[in-house]
Amino acid sequence: MNRENRDLAGGDGVNSVDMLQLGPELEDAEIRRELAVDFHEKSTPSPATMAVDIEAAVGGKREEMEWEKSGGRKLLLRRWVAVGLRSGERREGEGAFGLLWIRAWALRLDSGSGSWVLNMGFLFEGFEQWGCKNGVFTATRSEAMGMEFPLGEELEGMRLQRSLEVWKMGVVNYLDALKLQEKLVSDRKSGKILDTLLSLQHPPTFTLGKRRTYHNLLVPEADLQTLGAELHYTQRGGDITFHGPHQAILYPIISLRDIGLGARKYVENLELVMIELASLYSVQACAGRTCETGVWVGDRKIGAIGVRISSSITSHGLAFNIDPDLNYFKHIVPCGIADKGVTSLRRETNKLLPAEEVIQEQLISGFARLFGYSSIVYKENVSILSENEEIK
Amino acid sequence: MASRLWASRGASYLRVSVFHRGFSSVLKDLKYADSHEWVKVDGNSATVGITDHAQDHLGDVVYVELPEVGTTVTQGSSFGAVESVKATSDINSPISGKVIEVNEGLNSSPGLVNASPYENGWIIKVEMGNEGELNTLMDSDQYSKFCEEEDAKH
């Protein structure tokens, strides 16, 4: 085990990040790790150090830890122990320990030459700047109680604690959804929000991708209004397509860089989400061959994909036909593929379909599972207001 | 206190991979941005494209959106896009300056980006506004390592 002990006395700060080789004895639901931490205290003239052995378990278990200071005094601490971020509770120490608190601690998983090492940091009261945003801990220098911690690093949140925020939105106008996505992409880029997933449907809408493949619109634009449909251009990839009620749409606004995926792998995963959903209803769907991105049952398309990636943040996404009015598709060459048809889950399955909301939930949880999110948070009070008003 | 490596069960619990991945090709004399674009400097002008790693992760490029000659580009900002597998991905400029030439060949043969990312698949040529920016970019060794770390994330 490697540990770095630093001394306060010299006044050159303390780096309380310890690096430990991880040696687990794995049990069924837990990973037991033995960690040791150095604990430095300022108030005595000759700094006393405390070494503690801590057993930590994954899963947000509350652990009580007690340790002894070398002078024989005890400090009782209680905190959440979980992988990733948790902020601690503070307890007044017994004896003359009043000044010292454990506020929070963070874990970082590092890979280096094939072995996994846990970096653990102890923070002291006064680290107001410690916070977890998108699973990232940021610490800056703090002169709390005269102690300086030249941490200044961003400790990465553990991958396993990635959380997905889901907005369930009902039927949303296409442009409103587009504006919302643009805002969310910007917020995700600047780290204001976590990975987010919009789950919704659109009123009858035809959309074109970046290449503006108008030639695949088989009726004059003017006629679309009589059909009760809108037409919009977008910056997404892909050709012309139709969105409408009873077609489940997912718009993930996620950071591909954070999970190390490129465009191709991302799209493949989106295809898998839809393929898995179809299989829940015993429908055998598969990904298209090269140049035919999407999800097919035989030579009928059941799910479409069109994505935009900007500085590794995604927008737009997938559309899965639960039971939309397929007649609308007659007015376009869907996705520019002339000799193939379009289909829906209703058409392809023998099974009785549950309420659409159930199917949309299955789509959401399939997405979360496939992309490795450990928790889903549903956003409350989701509403979209029109153009010039603030989007809630 | 043990000091062993993760058991593979631990690894799978964490859904991480400890496999070593193969390298995409990286050229020595170029500079690289962390958004996977490369720059080749020739006097005051610079040629820009996307790397082998980038094209591999994109899939087959079917369309390249090029800026117009004369457009200003800014380091870190988008100047165009590529489309592959129904995904349009922004291309960010590794340097600031003015676009003096674009690779028109990409209009008819977007696949050049995949086939020859460092040569015939070049995207734009830029008259550099600030050569100092080159120092903020990675060299080939740093970029190789960067790619390795990125690929280890999943």
Automatic annotation (TrEMBL), chain A:
Pathway: Protein modification; protein lipoylation via endogenous pathway; protein N(6)-(lipoyl)lysine from octanoyl-[acyl-carrier-protein]: step 1/2
Pfam families referenced in this protein's UniProt entry, alphabetically: LplA-B_cat (PF21948)
Keywords: Acyltransferase, Transferase
Its EC number(s): 2.3.1.181
Domain BPL/LPL catalytic residues, every copy: 191-375
Top-rank lineage group of the source organism: Eukaryota
GO biological-process terms attached to the record: protein lipoylation
Gene Ontology MF terms in the entry: lipoyl(octanoyl) transferase activity
InterPro entries the UniProt entry points to: aa-tRNA-synth_II/BPL/LPL (IPR045864), BPL_LPL_catalytic (IPR004143), Octanoyltransferase (IPR000544), Octanoyltransferase_CS (IPR020605)
Similarity field: Belongs to the LipB family.
NCBIfam families named among the record's database cross-references: lipB, PRK14345.1
UniProt name for this protein: lipoyl(octanoyl) transferase
Species of the source: Tetracentron sinense (Spur-leaf)
Lineage, opening ranks: Eukaryota, Viridiplantae, Streptophyta, Embryophyta, Tracheophyta
Automatic annotation (TrEMBL), chain B:
Cofactor note as given: Binds 1 lipoyl cofactor covalently.
Positions of modified residues (N6-lipoyllysine): 86
Key word DNA damage present: no
SUPFAM superfamilies xref list: Single hybrid motif
InterPro entries linked to this entry: 2-oxoA_DH_lipoyl-BS (IPR003016), Biotin_lipoyl (IPR000089), GCV_H (IPR002930), GCV_H/Fam206 (IPR033753), GCV_H_sub (IPR017453), Single_hybrid_motif (IPR011053)
Domain of life: Eukaryota
Keyword match Mitochondrion: yes
GO biological process: glycine decarboxylation via glycine cleavage system; protein lipoylation
Keyword entries, A-Z: Lipoyl, Mitochondrion, Transit peptide
Domain Lipoyl-binding stretches: 45-127
Gene Ontology CC entries for this record: glycine cleavage complex; mitochondrion
Cofactor(s) it depends on: (R)-lipoate
Compartments where located: Mitochondrion
Function: The H protein shuttles the methylamine group of glycine from the P protein to the T protein.
Subunit architecture: The glycine cleavage system is composed of four proteins: P, T, L and H.
Family: Belongs to the GcvH family.
PANTHER family: GLYCINE CLEAVAGE SYSTEM H PROTEIN, GLYCINE CLEAVAGE SYSTEM H PROTEIN-RELATED
Name this protein carries in UniProt: Glycine cleavage system H protein
